[in-house]
Specification:
Layout (H helix, E strand, L loop, with lengths): L13 H7 L19 H10 L23 H4 L1 H13 L12 H22 L9 E2 L2 H12 L29 H20 L7 E6 L26 E7 L3 E11 L8 E7 L2 E8 L18 E8 L2 E10 L35 H14 L6 E12 L7 H7 L13 H13 L6 H16 L4 H13 L2 H4 E2 L12 E3 L2 H12 L6 H8 L6 H13 L4 H11 L20 H20 L6 H4 L2 E4 L1 H7 L10 E4 L12 H6 L8 H11 L26 H8 L3 H15 L13 E2 L2 E2 L3 E3 L5 E3 H11 L1 H17 L8 H13 L4 H10 L1 H4 E3 L5
Antiparallel strand pairs: 1-10, 2-9, 3-8, 4-7, 4-9, 5-6, 5-8, 11-18, 12-13, 14-15, 16-17
Helix pairs in contact: 4-5, 7-12, 10-11, 10-12, 11-12, 14-15, 16-28, 17-18, 22-24, 26-27, 26-28, 27-28
Length: 829
């Protein structure tokens, strides 16, 4: 008998809802006292270079230097001081047209301010911060269920989208929990538990229609000299990502539109799933009773096949392979480099009416001479129906993860319930269960049995209770008991294991990590380092590339990116999927091969399939499989020139040096520009590419003094990428206007093109290392960084430089840092 899920709750929902609304304690304000920040040297520098504009009367940019002239200035006005330091270092201030201080003076003042930062940071660096109890986000929930039960059903995909904070969706402060979401968790827990014990529910077959999406089919009158014979990269193909709800058999129905070129062979159809060809068939419509010899119209024709497919998300491609095989030589055209194919014999289907043969022969010859398009037919839609013959019963791997007593199919001993609860609960809660918890969940099993239900129904109820518990849904870190030092303390070994696993895998600790925590050995330097190396080599570390990398580089936005089809006909679903996979594989390579993080900027290699290689103009790459490809001799290097990044930093109809420059400042140099002030007019782009270049339009825009200071550093960086269009293809012109990809920064450095930009960014390696460190630490901790974290970021950056900037060293430094290893108690105000 199935019972309502709420009977399985170990306590009321109140504690869970309270956890959802918890926020971290405010950080302690520690002020430096009696510090002569405005000593003579700094006062003199500001008097010569800054005070004429930044005074009580003028207040240029809203800054009055006199207002921050206090002994505790660096602590009280740290954001202002950091902005001052950044603008002095980058040459943004004094503004263009004003006398510039000498490089020696700039260096001396910058070092003096920086040393004051470090001194005040040391006074507050003992604070490791406090992380709000974090609800598992959707990716973490899915991965945890996968590793807990051995199934990849992705139940959280049906949950509401997670909110983001500080650039990431795993931040405790923004992962709220509503009553409606709680109902989703309850329903998911019941379904997951019953699927684990009794197998997936039987589904009624449905029929889903996947429509063609992407490039417009432009009729061609000639056969190309070379083409993708698999058909995957041709505009005649259909690509889609589709979720199959269960393991089973599915119907695939090809639908077509267009007209087959007269005299060509039968169509060679192929179905690909996840990069493998799983079905091929020839289709000759002339054998159909409805065949029309005048047009050979495909619009009413379909081809079906049935295949078994596993549950989950899969990439599907329905294509016409060897598209141009069998076409007559008349289509070859005058270019001798184009393919010449022998003229086919005149053939008619069996049983064709004799009285119409001569009529058809004349039409055949007429159409052949007209040279009708050679590619005017495509797969217009693919219908997917199912599941049929659905797999039934529980999965053996799942049963083994649940029935750890060893009895998978009945015959359970008296102590089985408590053993199952103890071991499953320790994995689900990411820590050993207290005896009170074991008794509570075990009692659900006994209660079910006493009311006539089976042992399996009782275990199912216990699993539901654990999956709806706050200790599963939230990553809870406990303060020491009252009376002990609860101010600043080391987190527990199991809490440390959870921090590490959700950092690197977005999932629960595995057996090896949990055993280290059980033995209280995880904090030992040698053990921690060994576990980090093992985890980075594990395939689950792909979650770091997908979840951290996807949000740091903002390529998640590629999923919803739209492009003007008339301007960018190449932007189809296959290209979109290939763009994102390139970036993920590049990131995964840096992780698993332990490459220096500077390769994110300078790496002269990438990972391409044939579709993306053709788009980049790189020869010699065939087939749908991605492989490492050298970029030597091309203008591409690192992540900045990957099509995914270039696409998400553009508008639907054009590039944007402003968006790209802003992206570099935020995600590479850790120097985000302020939000534009209200009332700033939009850029007039109506004449771009015809009467004026985008650079000329932006120069007009920068004449507005309000805009000039931010754009002076932002725009030149973006112009370094202007040779790449709004989907990342290389170009020399924008319309009729030749592209000028040079840039001059406020500090006097100049460069040209993406290669020159790479040199500039590599020279700023310290800024990049600090940026990546700050973002990865934010992601690892699940909270925004505070002032007291700055010394940690700088310390990690220094150690990175001393160790060759290796990625594993960055992870090791973060995992060994005070914020990661420790926690501020709630009694520290």
């Amino acid at each position: 008998m199935r019972r309502p899920i709420f009977l399985a709750l170990p306590a009321s929902l109140a504690p869970l809802l309270a956890l959802a609304s918890m926020s971290p304690s405010g950080s302690r304000q520690i002020h430096s006292q009696g510090i002569p920040v405005f000593e003579q040297a700094i006062s003199s520098f500001f008097a010569r270079n800054c005070a004429a504009c930044h005074n009580t009367k003028a207040k240029a940019g809203g800054l009055d230097l006199r207002s921050i002239k206090r002994p505790d200035s660096v602590t009280r006005f740290r954001d202002t001081w950091e902005s001052i330091l950044r603008k002095i270092r980058t040459g943004e201030m004094p503004p263009p047209g004003s006398p510039k201080p000498s490089p020696t003076d700039v260096k001396a003042i910058a070092q003096r301010i920086e040393s004051e930062f470090e001194r005040t940071d040391r006074l507050i660096s003992s604070n490791p911060g406090r992380v709000t109890a974090r609800r598992l986000n959707r990716a973490e929930y899915n991965n945890t269920i996968r590793d807990l039960l051995g199934v990849n059903s992705r139940p959280a995909d049906d949950f509401p989208q997670d909110d983001s904070g500080y650039g990431f969706d795993n931040i405790g402060d923004v992962l709220s929990l509503s009553s409606s979401q709680m109902e989703r968790y309850a329903a998911a827990a019941e379904k997951i538990a019953r699927t684990a014990i009794f197998g997936p529910e039987s589904l009624q077959p449905t029929l889903i229609r996947l429509e063609v999406s992407g490039r417009k089919l432009v009729p061609s009158m000639t056969i190309p000299a070379s083409y993708d014979t698999s058909g995957l990269t041709l505009p005649n193909s259909l690509h889609a990502s589709h979720r199959f709800p269960a393991d089973g058999e599915y119907l695939f129905r090809f639908k077509f539109d267009g007209v087959r070129p007269l005299g060509s062979d039968a169509l060679h159809l192929a179905l690909w799933i996840d990069g493998k060809r799983v079905h091929a068939a020839d289709f000759d419509p002339t054998g159909s009773a409805a065949f029309n010899p005048d047009r050979q119209d495909f619009s009413s024709r379909t081809v079906d096949c049935r295949l078994r497919v596993g549950a989950g998300d899969h990439w599907i491609a329905a294509v016409i392979a060897r598209m141009y095989d069998g076409l007559p030589a008349a289509y070859g055209g005058p270019n001798p480099s184009q393919r010449q194919i022998p003229e086919p014999e005149f053939k008619l289907p069996p049983g064709f009416p004799k009285e119409r043969i001569e009529q058809f022969r004349k039409r055949f010859e007429a159409r052949r001479k007209e040279k009708s398009p050679v590619n005017d037919v495509r797969v217009s839609a693919l219908e997917v129906g199912g599941p049929y013959s659905q797999a039934t019963g529980p999965f053996v791997e799942t049963l083994r993860k649940v029935f750890t007593c060893g009895h998978l199919h009945g015959g359970h001993a008296a102590g089985c319930a408590q053993k199952i609860v103890t071991e499953f609960g320790a994995r689900a809660f990411r820590r050993p269960l207290a005896q009170q918890e074991i008794d509570r969940f075990s009692s659900l099993v006994h209660t079910a049995q006493s009311q006539g239900d089976s042992f399996e129904e009782g275990i199912c109820l216990a699993l539901q209770g654990m999956l709806i518990s706050p200790h599963f849904l939230f990553r809870i870190e406990r303060d020491p008991p009252a009376g002990k030092d609860a101010a600043i303390h080391l987190i527990g070994q199991h809490e440390l294991a959870s921090r590490l696993s959700y950092f690197l895998w977005s999932s629960m600790p595995d057996d090896a990590l949990r055993e280290c925590a059980d033995r209280q050995e995880l904090r030992k330097p040698g053990v921690l380092a060994a576990q980090i190396r093992r985890m980075l080599k594990d395939s689950r570390s792909s979650a770091l590339a997908e979840n951290f990398g996807g949000q740091w580089l903002q390529v998640r936005a590629l999923e919803s990116a739209q492009r003007d089809r008339s301007r960018f006909p190449d932007f189809d679903e296959y290209l979109r999927l290939s763009m994102r996979r390139e970036t993920e594989m590049f990131f995964e390579n840096v992780i698993r091969e332990d490459r220096p993080i500077l390769e994110f900027l300078t790496g002269k290699y990438t990972f391409l399939n044939e579709r993306l290689a053709r788009f980049y103009g790189i020869p010699g790459v065939e087939g749908p499989a991605f492989r490492q490809v050298s970029l030597s001799g091309t203008p591409r290097a690192g992540i900045l020139t990957q099509a995914s990044v270039l696409t998400v930093t553009s508008y639907p109809n054009r590039t944007s040096p402003v968006l790209r420059g802003k992206w570099i400042l935020e995600n590479i140099l850790n120097a985000p520009p302020p939000a534009p002030p209200p009332g700033v007019p939009n850029l007039d782009v109506t004449a771009v590419g015809t009467e004026a270049s985008l650079r000329q339009q932006l120069e007009q825009h920068r004449k507005n003094p309000t805009c000039a200071s931010c754009h002076a550093r932002m725009d030149p960086l973006g112009f370094g990428l202007e040779n790449f269009d709004a989907i990342g293809a290389w170009r020399a012109n924008d319309g009729k206007i030749a592209i000028d990809s040079s840039g001059s920064l406020p500090d006097g450095r100049s460069f040209t093109g993406p290669d020159g930009l790479t040199v500039i960014l590599k020279a700023d390696r310290v800024a990049f290392a600090q940026c990546l460190t700050a973002k990865l630490l934010t992601y690892a901790m699940g909270r925004g960084l505070e002032r007291y974290d700055s010394s940690t970021v700088k310390s990690i950056t220094r150690n990175l430089a001393a160790n060759g900037y290796r990625f594993s060293n960055l992870v090791q430094e973060i995992a060994s840092s005070r914020p990661f290893q420790m926690r501020r108690g709630d009694r520290l105000n």
